[in-house]
Structure formats: structure tokens, C-alpha cells
Design brief:
2 copies of one chain form a homodimer.
Chain A lengths: L3 H15 L8 H8 L3 H13 L3 E4 L5 E4 L8 H8 L27 H18 L8
Helix pairs in contact in A: 1-3, 2-3
Chain A binds a DNA duplex (30 and 30 nucleotides) through helix 3.
Chain lengths: 135, 135
DNA sequence: TATTACCCTATAGTTTTAGTAGATTATCGA
DNA sequence: TCGATAATCTACTAAAACTATAGGGTAATA
């Protein structure tokens, strides 16, 4: 399941991408248009800013705005920040690798074998989609 | 994240597939070999039996065994029973479709667009892998 | 001084991952 | 046939983790 955090984050990025070039957009406006709990969205936008996707401005006329061009934001990085590892099992994760404590040998593990394919297929999609592509 | 339920279920199926043609295998044996909590595994095997993957025999010499040939067990059905919908969002699910209450129009939804591709790529993998393939 | 992002905390709800206790059923030996 | 034993089956409970959201106050800026 995709968490609402990721869903809302993606929607917010999309919203900001469509408002590209204009003034900063306020949290309240995004929350209203996308039917998102404002407080929840607040924390999501914060993590997006901290991870280099967004810039912000305080005070009147303030808000959030995209830092980079939508075409330069691959879904891989967005998903890793919002949803976490792309792999469904740590033992097949590129960026968050961890050995399974119950599994003695990855090479003969059926779960490993299957999840490796799932990871690759997901990576393939995320790598071939930037924010601009899903607008 | 893949739930432990699914992970253990897959491992159990693998174990039983390798013991194919022999006597029923006891829960305790599988649990021991795969480092799984026996009681947890018990409930997992039960749902696998109820969904037509396994047969069981009580009493001495009893246990679980595969009903079908591993080559006739596609991962799609296994994953749906153990993990639930393959889609990460209900609005792109084939078997568990549900409309998002926050999203007014699926056709213009960026999340929908992306998750549709993810679903298809995952389906592609699961459809091309039977239990026999991941042994 | 009003407006807006920022930050910290708490919490209800749900899901996951089991553990406990016992009932039920089949086999086997006496 | 009877009872001991071995195994699955069932239901209830519970701890832990995670999710989604709310509240209230602080800091910066026009």
C-alpha cells in the first residue's frame, strides 16, 4: 500500500509543478485543492524541502515552490524520500540493504529471487518517470 | 514493505514444493528449517489451505502438502492471498478497485498515472513466475 | 502587526506479529 | 476396543509498530 504521505506528497509536487514560475503557493491552498489535512501536508512539505525538492518563504506572500525543473526530478528520488526503500525486502535494496536474520543464504532464497525482479521492474518505472512525465 | 506473513508463506510453499511427492510435512519442521515462529506459521498455512493451495492431514504422520503442481501456481494468486492487492492504490487495482475519495478525476491524477505503470510492471513479474520458477 | 512557514508533542486508530489455551481429529499400540 | 499420542484447527488476546492527524506555540517577513 502506498501511504497517504507519499500520495499527498506526489499530489503537492504535481500542484507546485503546474504553478511553476509563479509566486510561492501556500500550504492552505494546496491542502484545499487536493483535499488534504493541512497539518499533515505541512509536515510532508517540510520533509520535501529538507530533501532539496522545495524552497520556502515565510510571511505574507510566502509559501512553497519547486527548486528544480520538473523534468529533473526522477520518481526514484521522490519515492525514496516519501515512501522509503523501493525494494519490498531489505535484502534486495540498493540504498538500504540489510541482511535478513532468518535467511541463511540469499542465493537460494525464493523470496529473494522474486523480490529482486519486482525491485527491478519498479526501478525501471520510477527511473523512466520524472515529475514532468506524470503531469 | 513485504509483510512477514507473505515472506513466511512463500518460504513455506517453497519448502513444500521441494518436498513434493513425499509424505505430508509438519508445521514444526517447516518452522524450524525456515526460522519462523511456529504459531504464526500455523495461521499462515491455514489460510493457504483455505485458499486451495495446500491440503492437510491430522494426527500422527500428518502435516501439510501441496495440492497442485508448483508450475501451476502463479505468483499473482499467491501474492493476492497473502499480501492482498498487487496495486499500491485501490484506484488502479484490478481485483479490488475502489475510487479515491479525495481525487475528483482519475484521468488527470498524477498518482494514478504512476501507480498504473507500477501495477502493470509488478503484474508482469508475478504472471511470469510460478512457484516452480522461484525454486 | 498580520501572515505564513516552522517545530514539537500527543494521540486515536489500525495493522502486524505474534502468544495462549484449548478443541478436534487421526494414528497406533496394548 | 481403548487410550495415549501426535498433529491440525480455532478463538481470543496482546504487545509493538506504524499511520494519519490535531494542537499549540515560535520565528521570520512583508
Amino acid at each position: 500500500m502506498l501511504s497517504k504521505k507519499t500520495k499527498y506528497g506526489l499530489k503537492a509536487l504535481t500542484y507546485l509543478a503546474r504553478a511553476k514560475g509563479k509566486e510561492p503557493v501556500q500550504i492552505a491552498e494546496i491542502a484545499k485543492h487536493e483535499n488534504i489535512s493541512q497539518k499533515f501536508l505541512e509536515s510532508i512539505l517540510l520533509t520535501l524541502r529538507r530533501n532539496g525538492f522545495l524552497g520556502s518563504k515565510k510571511g505574507k506572500g510566502g509559501g512553497y515552490y519547486l527548486i528544480k525543473d520538473p523534468a529533473d526530478i526522477p520518481m526514484t528520488t521522490v519515492m525514496r524520500v516519501l515512501e522509503g526503500p523501493i525494494a519490498m525486502v531489505p535484502c534486495v535494496s540498493l540504498n538500504f540493504y540489510e541482511k535478513c536474520d532468518d535467511c541463511p543464504d540469499e542465493d537460494t532464497c525464493s523470496v529473494h529471487k522474486l523480490m529482486l525482479q519486482i525491485r527491478d521492474s519498479a526501478l525501471d518505472v520510477y527511473r523512466n518517470n520524472t515529475l514532468a512525465d506524470i503531469l
